[in-house]
Amino acid sequence: MDLKTQALFEQLARSPVEGVLGVVDARGASGVKSQSDTPWMLQFAFDGWRITDADVQIEPLTIRRQVTKEELASLRATIVPYSVLHIRARIVRDSSVGSPQALLETIVALDAVDAALCERARQLQEPVTHEDTVFGTLTLDRRLDWYTAKAMWIGTPVKVRFSVEASGGLEAALETGHALWQQQATWDRRIRDYAVAKLLPLKNDAWLDEEEVELSADEFCGRMTLAAVTAHPDGSFEFWHDDGDLFYGHSIYIRGSLSGGPNRADIPG
After folding, report:
1. pTM for this structure?
2. What is the CA angle 150-156-157, rounded to 5?
3. Do residues 139 and 247 share a domain?
4. CA angle 84, 88, 92 (to 5 degrees)
């Protein structure tokens, strides 16, 4: 556990245990593990919550608990998006990390009855869309805090994602997307040239089949197919390509920014 998390847990430990009802957000429950010898950390959030009969709070409440691997698997299956939970937890509204935090003690009910929170859960499942002159209808994916759309990139249909998690929001992310789409040919060449410079040597040095000869730059580019583009409010972007079996099914990932151009290449997956 890092020092920041340790300080938060010490703050939570000093708080009394309270009854809380809340709507599990779209991401459901997840688990993280900082080191091999540390416990798993269960984490989820309420997107709408209240203590007993108090007013419903909209600011997210992040909830944590140290668990075993087996407990984590059980709780992840139990804590599902948009369900209304009744829990007992230690809560700090003005936490050391700057947002409301809670330490889970027990789950009282997995399907609690609360009219206001059930309405909140219903509202959270309604589609949220935005119309754009370039990308058409964008739809919010609440799990990832980004809007998605489909668009053509030099004659190829691709997924486009606009991150709204960082400051600036959708309008700033759209500005990034518009700038890329206005100069598709230029950016496509820059992205592919960067992929060749960073990844073609890797392909030819370590990823050739026994009967495969070294590839040229044109052959390498010819097997890449753009699948998705992510635009961020700060002007950064990611281009995701299908690899055409260059790296046995790994994605080809190029990251960069409008101001600096491509600056990172990888083959995740």
Report:
1. 0.81
2. 20
3. yes
4. 100
Give the dihedral sign, CA 102/75/47/51. Answer: negative
Q: 6 by DSSP, 3-state: which?
A: helix
The secondary structure of 98-166, three-state, reads: CCCEEEEEEEEECCCCCHHHHHHHHHHCCCCEEEECCCEEEEEECCCCEEEEEEEECCEEEEEEEECCC
Give the pLDDT band (50/70/90) at residue 166: low
**Residue appearing with tokens 């399907």:** 111
Chosen domain end from 123, 151, 184: 123
Residues 13 and 101 in one domain: yes
- Count of the separate structural domains present in the chain: 2
Residue pair 146/163 in contact by the 8 Å Cβ criterion: yes
Tokens found for residue 234: 């700060």
The pLDDT assigned to 156 comes to: 93
Host domain of residue 63: 3-123
| Last residue in a domain, options 94, 123, 152 | 123
Distance (Å, whole) CA 187 – CA 257: 11
Left (φ > 0), alpha (ψ -120 to 50) or beta: where does 239 sit?
Answer: beta
The amino acid that residue 194 corresponds to is: Y
